[in-house]
Design brief:
The structure is a homodimer. Chain A is α/β, with parallel strands linked by helices. Chain A has a domain at 3-173: 3-Layer(aba) Sandwich (Carbamate kinase). Chain A is 35% helix and 25% strand. Chain A is built from 13 helices and 20 strands. Chain A has helices at 16-31, 46-57, 63-87, 97-100, 119-126, 152-164, 197-205, 213-221, 274-284, 313-322, 324-327, 354-364, 388-398; strands spanning 3-8, 35-40, 92-95, 102-104, 113-116, 130-134, 137-139, 145-147, 168-173, 194-196, 226-230, 238-241, 253-257, 261-269, 292-294, 301-308, 331-335, 338-344, 371-374, 378-384. In chain A, helix 1 (16-31) links the parallel strand 1 (3-8) and strand 2. In chain A, helix 1 (16-31) packs across helix 3 (63-87) and helix 2 runs antiparallel to helix 3 (63-87). The longest helix of chain A is centred in the N-terminal third of the chain and has 25 residues, at 63-87. The radius of gyration of chain A is 23 Å and the shape is globular. Chains A and B meet through helix 1, helix 2 and helix 3 of A and helix 1, helix 2 and helix 3 of B.
């Protein structure tokens, strides 16, 4: 008897038929003598529909009330899935975050899980019930509802798996697992049988769209066995684990991220503390800044360019505009017409020539590089949005990642 | 500074425009230096839509999971109303039943409020916030979500008013108040400026559709000042209060109830305990039986006829059929083609001739009476459904209740 946490996303529970499909997958695991905790997202477009409804009333609604509104989507899908499992004759109960005691900080709309009181779930498991938990939501110390940000249900699942000491946390999605590149862009992209937490982290945050990156962080921290697999077909998925020594590939995958905007502060005074001023300001507004490039100062002036998620662009421009004098930039430019393309692999840092090979692939394809950023296990370039898919294919070919 | 509880129904918050209408009504009260607690129902058809969704998956879903599902409707509307009030620049917070501590029994789908912990609301009122509370929902001792049955938001509002010691509980609805009869049936029906709890109770349970009857029971028990008024126009409503001595009208109103089915048990053995057997059985299945008539036994046999809400008919027939031998009836007849028409007024019991006048009105209109039932303050007759509106008009005229 093992305890398995299974997470199903919004597409997997979009209608009655798919809900029964999920119910059957859950029951199969339950009937194989396992305890099962299921985490569900809101059905299909529910969250987007609710956001629309809120915007119609107040585009600047408080995040607290947005979270109250959005959290209802998961409560609906957990009840509907419970009803399907009841129909199939298995004991089941659905629980919201406040019932489970899924405690977060008070950063509404993007809260972080602090701890999970597992006792209510354990009580229900002891009664041999299938337990369904609403993903994406938590409660803070004021007993108010919070949400974990887009894709937060993955994090809910991993946090529950960690708190309950689950043997396995399965993330069901609409792809079979993690690929060397997005199969919609690169037809011969290959599925990976396993991948390390670090690689998965870079891929998730780079727009591979398979796992929410915070869920991978939590899984790594608590050493949760994670598997990404298809909710539609029965096939082995990709296992995410601590040490990756099975496949010796240098570059594990190519990812593209379109959710990126670039801002340039042109002709800043070349005095110390400029970067601190700018990014301190943005941090105060909880903006996630990604790639940062600062040009070498000449003639007493310098430029700073950086990228942020598209959704933060308006806030960033607003903040910069309001503090224009303090920052002292001549121009503030920005563009949304940009993509980030990255290669990821744990072996990269200790291997020379990986970056050169990537740049060569782009040169051969006639693609201009805007900005470059590197880390231990990844190399990212910013290029024109219209070149992004071509770039992914060229790099994927160059490193022979395909089948 | 007074504390006022205001309740708005589903029609009042059906779309963005109406939500702002409600927000303005609330703010008007708040700006007149009052503390305001607002209770909202789910938007328009939300509850019906959710019921449909559940039926598609499992028509026999557990009531616990139905309550989890249905309670999301009120959580959505409370958040949306909060956003509208935020937009209009007043401090506001929305709270669900579990946050308010609105404790009920565990009779899912039709739970009764046991007590309300008002401290969270008081804390928010002390911060001078407008507090919005989800109607219709509660939590039981297991920390599970319950719902209070159709129209339960009225009861939520009155229970909160009682627990918080509110000066006034205003129930906003789509009519101006309580009338001597349904104005859609009787064009010259007159609005009452006040009405006693007892009269209101009879009218509510007799299908006047203005207030949920349990809300009136709670208001009477805790002596809550209740006012029924229009959410659409600004006009004085009808005050429901303990003693009614302002208007000296004998008959206060005429009500029609179409939500009624009649069951007849024909040719029962005329032995003691029959009524106990039948109604004990129905009570065990939580069926509300209304009018009961037993014919005088002759020839060793008797008939028992009674009425139940339409929604209970299938269950009742099922229960009776399963216990046919025990009951020992020759036939079990039933009809849905029936209406209950009633007159209500506190002075009736001590006045002779009221019943006779009512029956005369029906005789003059050529309407046949099926069953008669009387209490201290009401007289009800069961008649053919097609005669019901005519009957209401005839009685209303006979007692000169109109303007």
């Amino acid at each position: 008897m093992a305890l398995i946490v299974q997470k199903f996303g919004g597409t997997s529970v979009a209608n009655a038929e798919r809900i029964f499909n999920v119910a059957n997958r859950v029951i199969e695991t339950y009937d194989s003598d396992n305890d099962v905790v299921v985490v569900v997202s809101a059905q299909g477009d529910t969250t987007d529909d609710l956001i629309e409804k809120a915007k119609e009333i107040n585009p600047r609604a408080s995040k607290r009330e947005m979270d109250v509104l959005l959290s209802t989507g998961e409560q609906q899908s957990m009840a509907l899935l419970a009803m399907a499992i009841e129909k199939l004759g298995r004991p089941v109960i659905s629980l919201a975050a406040w019932q489970v005691g899924l405690a977060t900080d008070s950063n509404y709309s993007n809260a972080r899980i602090k701890r999970v009181m597992g006792n209510r779930i354990q009580t229900e498991l002891d009664k041999h019930k299938i337990v369904i938990v609403a993903g994406f939501q938590g409660i803070n110390k004021f007993d108010d509802v919070t949400t974990l940000g887009r894709g937060g249900s993955d994090t809910s699942a991993v946090a529950l798996a960690a708190a309950l000491g689950a043997e396995l946390c399965q993330i069901f999605t609409d792809v079979r697992g993690v690929y060397t590149a997005d199969p919609r862009i690169v037809p011969n992209a290959k599925q990976l049988t396993d991948i390390s937490f670090d690689e998965m982290l870079e891929l998730a945050s780079l727009g591979a769209n398979v796992l929410h990156n915070r869920s991978v962080e939590v899984a790594r921290k608590y050493n949760v066995n994670l598997e990404v697999l298809s909710s539609l077909e029965k096939a082995p998925g990709t296992v995410v684990k601590e040490v990756n020594s099975v496949e010796k590939m240098l570059v594990r995958g190519v990812a593209r991220d379109n959710d990126v905007a670039r801002i340039s502060l042109v002709n800043l005074d070349n005095t110390p503390g400029k970067a601190f001023q700018v990014f301190g300001l943005l941090a105060k507004h909880k903006i996630n800044v990604d790639v940062i490039i600062q040009s070498i100062g000449r003639g007493g002036k310098k430029d700073i360019s950086f990228t942020v998620p598209l959704g933060s662009l308006d806030t960033v421009l607003d903040v910069l505009e309001k503090n224009r004098e303090l920052i002292g930039a001549e121009h503030i430019d920005h563009t949304e017409n940009i993509s980030k393309v990255s290669i990821v692999g744990v072996g990269m840092a200790s291997n020379t020539g990986v970056a050169a090979t990537m740049f060569e692939a782009l040169y051969d394809a006639g693609i201009n590089i805007n900005m470059i950023s590197t880390s231990e296990i990844k190399i990212s370039v910013l290029i024109d949005k219209r070149d992004a898919e071509r770039a992914v294919r060229a790099i994927h070919d160059k490193f022979n990642l395909g089948d």
